[in-house]
Specification:
Helix content: 10-25%
Mean pLDDT: 86
Number of strands: 2
Order of helices and strands: EHHE
Strand order of the largest sheet: 1-2
Largest sheet: 2 strands, parallel
Radius of gyration: 15 Å
CATH topology: Type 1 dockerin domain
Strand content: under 5%
Number of domains: 1
CATH class: Mainly Alpha
Structural class: mainly alpha
Low-confidence stretches: none
């Protein structure tokens, strides 16, 4: 999650650069760590429609939690977010 304050959005839209968001933070606690890995593990190789599928671990949004998602998490392992842009 990145935050940018004091931005006026005009109709039909305004482009706002929010910085890079970290893939791998399943639980939204600002860090990529063991808690996120446990969420991914519980959904490993599960696809949309399977009761154990957890979209929070499907970082590339292809409908299945697999190696691609794991590699995205790995790239940000033990990093934290958000970047505050004021």
């Amino acid at each position: 999650m990145n935050v940018k304050r004091n931005v006026v959005i005009a109709v039909p839209g305004t482009a706002v650069y929010m910085g890079t968001l970290l893939e791998g933070n399943c639980n939204g606690d600002k860090g990529v760590n063991t808690l996120d890995f446990l969420i991914m593990k519980a959904s490993w190789l599960k696809a949309v429609g399977n009761p154990a599928y957890d979209a929070r671990a499907d970082f590339n949004r292809d409908g299945v939690v697999n190696t691609i998602d794991f590699l995205l998490m790995k790239a940000n392992w033990l990093k934290s977010s958000p970047a505050m842009i004021l």
